[in-house]
Amino acid sequence: MATKIRLQRHGKKRKPFYHIVIADSRSKRDGKFIEKIGTYNPNTNPATIDINFESALKWVQTGAELTDTARAILSYKGVMYKNHLVKGMQKGALTEAQVETKFNEWQANQDAKVAAKKDNLSKAEQDALAKRLAAEAEVNAVRAKAIEAKNTPEPVVEEAPAVEATEEVVAETETTEAVAEETAPEVVEEAPVAEATEEAPAAEGEEETKAAE
């Protein structure tokens, strides 16, 4: 019987959760399986993988076929690398101690990479949270200013009395001038002195004429 390591879908719509199973290559994807060797949750970052390492290595060594996704998962967990080292030991290229040493070094390096990725994601989340809080604080400040401006009564602007006083003074001045023009006495022009002097000799001539008569 040909066996295959593949994923069996579970979970909710748009939130898949997979079982890593050993099944007959001829069975349906979500049909019966021989053994469940782990789970895969792609909804987390990084993805959460829980696997029975020894059982997965045993099935790989017995020649079970792998889907592309199953191969990537087992490579990520080191199953494929351990299988490579065991083959080298079987050929006499490596000892069992060397196999364990090399695999432990690889595992430590892989754990460091995963930890660094988690730290970067955590820092990115913190930065995003800080930016979001700063944006919310700015929006709240703008809203508070708008509410304060709405609740603050508008100042009463008093009209300048100087303009009114000036207008009243001008009106009074015009009225006074009009009254003054109406009540002013008429000016009587006096006869010029020269005319009186000219008339005097004529009077004297008349007296002389009367005396001669």
Task: Describe the protein's architecture and organization.
By secondary structure, the protein is of the alpha+beta class. Helices cover 61% and strands 15% of the residues. The chain is built from 6 helices and 5 strands; from the N terminus they run E-E-E-E-H-E-H-H-H-H-H. The chain has a 5-stranded mixed β-sheet with strand order 4-3-2-1-5. Helix 1 crosses helix 3. Residues 193-213 have low confidence and may be disordered.
Topology (elements, then pairings):
Layout: E1 3-12, E2 15-24, E3 35-41, E4 48-51, H1 53-61, E5 65-66, H2 68-76, H3 79-90, H4 96-151, H5 161-183, H6 193-212
Parallel strand pairs: 1-5
Antiparallel strand pairs: 1-2, 2-3, 3-4
- Number of discrete helical segments: 6
In which order are the strands of the major sheet placed?
A: 4-3-2-1-5
CATH class of one domain equals Alpha Beta
Mind telling me the CATH superfamily name of one domain?
Ribosomal protein S16
Going by CATH, the architecture of one domain would be 2-Layer Sandwich
Nearest-integer average pLDDT: 79
Share of helix among residues? 55-70%
Shape: elongated
Describe the biggest sheet?
A: 5 strands, mixed
Low-pLDDT residue intervals, each spanning 5 or more residues: 193-213
* SSE sequence, one letter per element: EEEEHEHHHHH
**Could you say what the CATH topology of one domain is called?**
S16 Ribosomal Protein, Chain: A
| Cα gyration radius (Å) | 59 Å
Total number of strands: 5
Strand content: 15-25%
Structural class: alpha+beta
Distance between the termini: 191 Å
